[in-house]
Write a structure and sequence with these properties.
CATH architecture of the largest domain: 3-Layer(bba) Sandwich
Number of strands: 17
Strand content: 15-25%
Structural class: alpha/beta
Distance between the termini: 21 Å
Helix content: 10-25%
CATH superfamily of the largest domain: FAD/NAD(P)-binding domain
CATH class of the largest domain: Alpha Beta
Order of helices and strands: EHEHHEEEEEEEHEHEEEEEEHEHH
Shape: elongated
Length: 328
């Protein structure tokens, strides 16, 4: 393998990783973006018909206009936009290349080993997002083929008995869309109401469908066990069993915090496990290692979005340029 040297390597090819690459490019730095999946892999894994809560201009990076046909852009429009940005900016990105190891080589130099090559860099930005590790239910039968933690297209579930776990945006979208394709939909909700963060146009829709009985919902309930043909549910009234073909578990996702710990980044000791970094420069406890995007929030994945973390890219590159520690 050839060892290639860079001023900065960005781990993660999502919108914020791309934004970091654009800022590095503007600053004249020799950079590389490494993405273990496809371009903007997290967005690709969103439901096919997903609509963003944000307007298109708040998702823009690199001063490239994001023109949408709707007031709120869709997943497909976002995929097309970030692909056009990558082409327009001629970003240096390697796709389907997973980072396996980050090792300090001393003298403010790091070696990055991937599944394809090795690289040396003076600076690292970790912008790896949070969509890769689903929150598991931890029940018997969760590993059955009928259970998925990623919902894509509602047509697949037409005329099937579908159970959706969760009460926030992903769960509500899955419930409404599969129901509209003819599925018999049941929701399992741990709390006593639909989530407060659900998009304002979807919340009354799902509440009305539950109220009129089109979609059945068990509140203050959780799954006890999943079998080939049924789901056993713990409800306030006791155990109930429902016939079932598919389980769509939309209970959220988490960042790869084990990777951060493996690299040597400190995490808070509470349940949030927030990484340690400087708010002004985004530099972690490791010299010349930075964080960008939603991963900065630890398990509090609802605190940072594309629109309020784009600025991370500017902060990081400003800090790197002020050090003037680049590869010779």
């Amino acid at each position: 393998m050839n060892s290639i040297k860079y001023d900065i390597i960005i781990i993660g090819g999502g919108p914020i990783g791309l934004a970091c690459g654009i800022e590095a490019q503007k600053a004249g730095l020799n950079y590389l973006i490494l993405e273990k999946g496809c371009l903007v892999n997290s967005l690709y894994n969103y439901p096919v018909n997903m609509t963003f809560f944000s307007t298109s201009e708040r998702l823009e990076i690199g001063d490239v206009p994001f023109v949408s046909n709707n007031a709120k852009p869709t997943r497909n429009e976002a995929l097309e936009y970030y692909r056009r940005v990558t082409i327009h900016k001629r970003l240096n990105i390697r796709l389907f290349e997973e980072v396996l190891e980050v090792k300090s080589e001393g003298f403010e130099l790091y070696k990055i080993k991937t599944n394809k090559s090795e690289y040396f860099t003076a600076n690292i930005v970790i912008a790896s997002g949070f969509y890769d590790i689903p929150q598991k239910l931890g029940v018997k039968g969760e590993d059955l083929p009928k259970v998925t933690h990623y919902y894509k297209d509602p047509h697949f579930y037409a005329f099937q008995k579908v159970l959706v776990v969760g009460a926030n945006n992903s769960a509500v979208d899955a419930a409404l869309e599969t129901w509209r394709k003819g599925a018999d939909v049941t929701m399992i909700i741990r709390g006593d109401e639909i989530g407060s963060r659900v998009k304002y146009w979807a919340k009354p829709d799902i509440e009305n469908r539950i109220k009129d009985g089109s979609i059945k919902a068990y509140f203050n309930s959780e799954i006890a066990e999943i079998t080939d043909n049924q789901v056993i549910i713990k409800t306030p009234k006791g155990i109930e069993t429902v016939e079932n073909d598919w389980v769509i578990s939309m209970t959220g996702y988490q960042p790869n915090l084990n990777f951060l710990k493996k690299v040597g980044i400190y995490l808070s000791q509470d349940e949030i496990m927030k990484p340690q970094y400087d708010e002004n420069s985004m530099e972690t406890n490791l010299k010349n290692v930075y964080l960008a995007g939603v991963i900065c929030g630890g398990l509090n994945t609802h605190s940072l979005f594309i629109e309020n973390s784009r600025v991370h890219a500017e902060r990081i590159i400003q800090k790197i340029k002020s050090k003037e520690r680049l590869i010779e």
